[in-house]
Amino acid sequence: MQLNELKQQMTLPVIMAPMFLISNPRMVIEACNAGIIGSFPALNVRTTEKLDEWMGEIKSELEQRKEQNPGRKIAPWAINFISHRTNKRFTEDLQLIEKHQPPIVITSLGDPSPVVKVVHSYDGIVLSDVTTVKFAKKALEKGSDGLILVSNGAGGHAGTLNPIAFVHEIRSFFDGPVILAGAMSRGEDILAAKVLGADFAYMGTQFIAAKESGAGEDYKQMAVDSMIDDIVYTPAFSGIPANYMIPSIVNAGLNPNHLPANKKMDFSELGDPNIRAWKNIWGAGQGVGGVEKVQSIAEITEGLLEQYRIAQEKVIRDYNAVVKQ
User: Fold this and answer.
1) Of the N and C termini of the chain, which has fewer Cβ atoms inside 10 Å?
2) CA distances from 135 to 3, 164, 196, 258 (A)
3) 77: part of which helix (H) or strand (E)?
4) How close are the terminal C-alpha atoms of the chain, in Å?
5) How far from chain centre, in Å, is Cα 170?
6) How far apart are CA 265 and CA 151, in angstroms?
7) Residues 27, 210: contact at Cβ < 8 Å?
């Protein structure tokens, strides 16, 4: 699938980012139906058998919707695969990717080459999320088709690089698909990403409070109530620095100013709902202030599209005003 073909299936250049313990099949399906790429982490389910069910459900329903609405733009779906050596389901989940053939596979935290081999066998696309230029070059060397630049302020396992500088450096040596992640919550942010040189915006936090979201009602309300100052960046819970909502840390009985050190990167606990850190500590990006109310994914996407169009029109007006001077 070529980049232009991918864009033609979409109404808005957005990928709904995979969110741990939040993303589910209904979110993916409704996102794709709204014209943006929907995705979910493979480890959001506890067993390979359940993952098989999820992937089958997503694939089947999207195919049905395409048949029922031949003129409608229905975006492709994606699965997020942890390619780190501590992923205990590495082999089994990769076999399911080969079985269900998701159009897009997003790799995180490891060598993407085993995934590339499988996904390219059925002409799918592999996107690798990266936090540094070094990791970006490694991902491309291993065969990734595109890069997700996880910049400062992104929800979950974020990087520390400024998104403007990050995109510029990547574009100095790579002209393939680039997706920008990091505190984007409005339509004008999507346009800004494209002006910088990215092909798509990667948005997760904005969808935490979606009606279809797997987040609990308390989680959704906390996202609505929180602002940028309510976010803390720490490696305490997974061994990799990530952004979390401070109120959730306080509610878990921890002091956000004195969090335990954890420098071991270990994803063997992912998928275990009994691990307190994953249940009670809630992630969100610095763009959480843009989450104003609980809405359906269709409503969120419609709002983003309207903001995007208004931003485009403003840029054109400002340009024409300058030209006339």
Assistant:
1) C
2) 22, 17, 20, 30
3) strand 77-82
4) 44
5) 19
6) 20
7) yes
d(CA 19, CA 40) in angstroms, rounded, equals 6
Contact 106, 18 (CB under 8 A): yes
pTM: predicted TM-score of the whole model, two decimal places: 0.92
Identity of the residue numbered 84: H
Look up residue 98 and give its two tokens. Answer: 């080969």
Q: How far is it, in rounded angstroms, from Cα 128 to Cα 114? A: 13
Q: Are 287 and 206 in contact (CB under 8 A)?
A: yes
Q: How confident is the model at residue 325 (pLDDT cuts 50, 70, 90)?
A: confident
What pLDDT does 216 receive? 94
Average pLDDT (176-205) is 96
- Tell me the C-alpha distance between 277 and 286, whole Å: 20
For residue 99, the SS3 value is helix
Which domains, ranges and CATH numbers included, belong to the chain? Answer: 3-215+287-324 (3.20.20.70)
